[in-house]
Amino acid sequence: MSADYDVLVIGAGPGGYIAAIRAGQLGMKVACVEGNPYDDPKGEPRLGGTCLNVGCIPSKALLASSEEFEKISHHAEDHGISVTGAKMDVAKMIARKDSIVDKMTGGIKFLFKKNKVTLVNGWASFVGKTDAGVQVKVTGAKGEEVITAKNVIIATGSKARHLPGVPVDNDMICDNEGALKFGAVPKKLGVIGAGVIGLELGSVWRRLGSDVTVLEAMPQFLAAADEGVAKEMQKIFTKQGLKFNLGVKIEEVKTTKKQVTVKYKDADGKDQQMVCDKLIVSVGRIPNTDGLNLEAIGLKTNERGQIDVDAHCQTLTAGVYAIGDVIRGAMLAHKAEEEGVMVAEILAGQAGHCNYDTVPWVIYTSPEVAWVGKTEQQLKAEGRQYKAGQFPFMANGRALGQGDSQGFVKVLADATTDEVLGVHIINSHASDLIAEAVMAMEFKAASEDIGRICHAHPSLSEVVKEAALACDKRQLNM
């Protein structure tokens, strides 16, 4: 008996569909299983996973729409443009978001056909192993079938973490899915969790008129970010109108048909209460391994619900790999994509590669926050000697011309070798600017290397150059 496929990918999110496409490009016989319809009108599986359907892509569409509304309503006058009575059609904004999602998910189907990837509709669970390979049962609308593959890649992603005793109905109390499809702008919006999702979605509805209050359990704001960046962003968000309560403990959440009441203890242990029209629960995500029947192939999840893998994403069971949100590391779509490509290339006999030290982080607020590598607090904790260079966008002509001069670029480099150890950016184009830093760190560049590269003038990228030069106190425009 021979295997049906060389590679079977479970899950068609960013990691899964990219792994399937790359394996197809490398000449392997590939299938990808996906069962989640994500409210598809025909009830068919929607490709792209959380990212394309109810995460990265739709949230960025709403962020863009809300930013345009805020610019027209509050900042057009700075350019000599008079605008009165600007209104937001929420239904049209949501429809635009949905059309972008439809286009993107449909594009993956085209890419599957182009690269000869077979799409299998249904939900996968492991059956066991045979001499031919790994057996996987797929349960779909047409019944069950058992597929045998030489290699299996688990790419089932993650789902929103919910709080005990706080039932998410995606109407009054919402996770990321419900928060992307409000029918109207809530007058008062509560957000539990000051992480990436909470800040992005809170920003969307704040710009459209919501009074937004964010409750965060951690005593520090944006604890994962560089301390200087976190401090500056808290100031910016507060100035924009977001309200933050840090170090809180949620005690009770009650819902009526018209409002949600959250009782909590503040950082001083005092009883407080927040009443809002809608509540977004944004307290992280957990690996999605339900129903996989991992035990059938000798696997189990660890204490964090993750599947343990080695440096090349292979599990303890030969021929079975796992990538993305179901394993250790950052829950980021681009990290999953890199792992998917790495695994596919390893299976083809190539030297697959994924450098976790150069995976960038981005928060798509306005301004954006992006960073790669070490923070100052991490370097201090390690006892590593470093030098820092920082340059503000308010000293950059292009930024001033665009009316977008908030933030700065900070470059951290080794005190002795000058190797770039981390780069941190606050700017509305930070997600694009960080790519230069990722490239520099991937090739072990020194801060001097960035400083000696010719950057176009006038451009925002000049701030990256100036920050690199500032590591040796030789910035030119300040």
Give a quick precis of the structure.
The protein is an alpha/beta fold and 478 residues long.
What does this structure look like?
This protein has 478 residues and is an alpha/beta fold. The chain has three domains: 5-159 and 286-354, FAD/NAD(P)-binding domain; 173-283, FAD/NAD(P)-binding domain (3-Layer(bba) Sandwich); 358-470, FAD/NAD-linked reductase, C-terminal dimerisation domain (Enolase-like, domain 1), CATH 3.30.390. Helices cover 31% and strands 26% of the residues. It is built from 13 helices and 22 strands. The strands form five sheets. Strands 1, 2, 3, 4, 5, 6 and 17 form a seven-stranded mixed β-sheet that branches. A hairpin with a 5-residue loop joins strand 21 and strand 22. It starts with a strand and ends in an 8-residue tail after the last helix. The mean pLDDT is 96.
Helix count from the secondary structure assignment: 13
Helix content: 25-40%
Instruction: From the 3D structure, determine the CATH topology of the largest domain.
Output: FAD/NAD(P)-binding domain
Q: Which residue ranges are poorly predicted, with pLDDT under 50 across at least 5 consecutive positions?
A: none
> Given the C-alpha coordinates, what overall shape results?
globular
First-last Cα distance: 71 Å
Average pLDDT confidence is 96
CATH class of the largest domain: Alpha Beta
Number of domains: 3
- Kindly provide the radius of gyration, computed on alpha-carbon positions and rounded to a whole number of angstroms: 24 Å
The helix-and-strand class reads: alpha/beta
Pfam family, one: Pyr_redox_2
EC number: 1.8.1.4
Family: Belongs to the class-I pyridine nucleotide-disulfide oxidoreductase family.
Catalytic activity: N(6)-[(R)-dihydrolipoyl]-L-lysyl-[protein] + NAD(+) = N(6)-[(R)-lipoyl]-L-lysyl-[protein] + NADH + H(+)
